[in-house]
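ok here's Lipopolysaccharide biosynthesis protein:
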Amino acid sequence: MKDAPAGHAAPYDEPDLLRDQFRQLLRYRLLIVCGIVLGLAGGGWLGLTANETYVATAEITVRTPTADPFAGGTVDRVAMGSERRTAVSDIVAQRAAEALGQPDSFPQLKRGLQVTNPPNTEVLRFAYSADDPHLAAERANAFVQAYLDNRQADADATIAAQVAALESQRAPQLERRDELEDELAGLLDGSAAYDSALSDLTTVTGTIADLNAAIARLTALDTTGGRVITEAGPPGSPSGPGLPLLLALGYVVGIGLGLLAAWVRLVFDPTVRSPGDVTRALHAPVLGVLPRPGRGDHPGEQLLADGRLAEEYRSVAFRLAYDESFAQRRRLLVVAPRGSIETPLAAAVNLTAAFAEMGMDALLVEADLRTPTLTDQLRHADGVRPGWAGSPGGHGGDWPGVRVPIDAGESGIFDLVPGRRVRNVPRALTSPPATQLISHADTKGAVVVVLAPAVLSYADAIALTDRVDGVLVVCDPSEVHRDDLTRVRELVVGAGGILLGAVLHSWGSGTDRREGEDGADTPREAGRDRRAVADRQAPRPVPGQGPRHRQPPPAGTGREPQGGNSETMGLRILDPGELSDHEGHTDHRSRKP
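and the structure:
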């Protein structure tokens, strides 16, 4: 077999690892779907329950003053940060409330206002939000006008204060001028006193003229606070995302939530997530993945598989046959990690049939001595069970008992040592007869397949490991934990065994077999299986050995199958008389090992 040696998991490239992790996330489709549904529900709820909001916008340019009345002639730019804060102040809000006829509600009016200043401009943008478009436009324009009026009132107040200061300075000069004029009227023209009074009058008159000029400049200033460049009008549609956009956003957010929930579930999921996890936990390759049964079918309905399932079993058997570790000993222990062994039982039967098809002298040993079920299933399949094939009284009642020849249709014939309940299971498994039975694999062209209980349920499989060597684990990845597989590997390797690989399936525990009311298969299933077996009545030759043919039972021997379900399982228990005399297998099949 060309697989990677045991103990070394196949390396993963980074793209392959990412793809594997993404596929693992998709295992939790329900969580992802729930996240999407939650996101869509949230987006729809916001879109349907949120009140429609209309935003009306107005823009103004703040006018730069032509002269600074406090500095006396320097031109400066407007501090837009201060103007924006002034626009949202209580003073402007109160002016707007008075203009709207709601003087006591200015704190509530401020809540819908937002003032911004576009970069590198002297523009203020007033945006007002309201439930009604006309109300939003009215209030936006009211705040714009209130801001302009407030700025103009501030300018007027500043000019009035400056004019009043200049007039207060001019009043004594006017009085002095009147006094000098009266004094000049009583002085002789050309005298020194007249000239001095005239000079003082000229100075006072100049000062008065300067003050009058300053007052004239101040009173002539344009105190308009700015100019409206965009008047607010009723918006035609509500602002904010609509229902379609909210649903799209909810869908995207829902996918994120679903993937996050799936990732958290993946991190804390103790079960095996992929065949790669099985390989890494067991340090052994996955030899096969059994296909899912078709709708309406169940893997427990027929022991001998057909179709794609049979081909997968044959593929596993061929891979084992060409594995060097298995070819040297030809002993195979089929086990499950824990739980039911119904699927390992079916795998053991089909692998034994596949080995028989290869021309090997195949022997199937049911080493489940606690709850053996294969005998009952074969009795149910055969309808009439020959007395020699399972009578404990005729052979002492010990295990192992006789070898029962099993007809597997086209695959040929293999021997079966059925399990039976014993008082001391560990002693029976390690007894000399059991060791001699397993040593049948030392015969040229022979192979022994042993079915044991679950490794982590009983120590029976570990007790057989030093005799059987090669171990095949059959498990359902969705029901087994990684720690379980790691524990199986430690137990098998610690007992001196070799893990040949694993066979995966997705059938669950297999405890809910569909049966008729009396425990038998339904007539439809029985008829279908009888037709399938009837088509396989003539087994084809197998390589390496001459074909083992069945002869029809003599008339009147009472060996004819009775009932309508004689070949329900695809297998049939043979009477030694039905085997060809030239095969030479009759004696060893009917004696104890």
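+1. Residues 18-50+241-267 form one domain.
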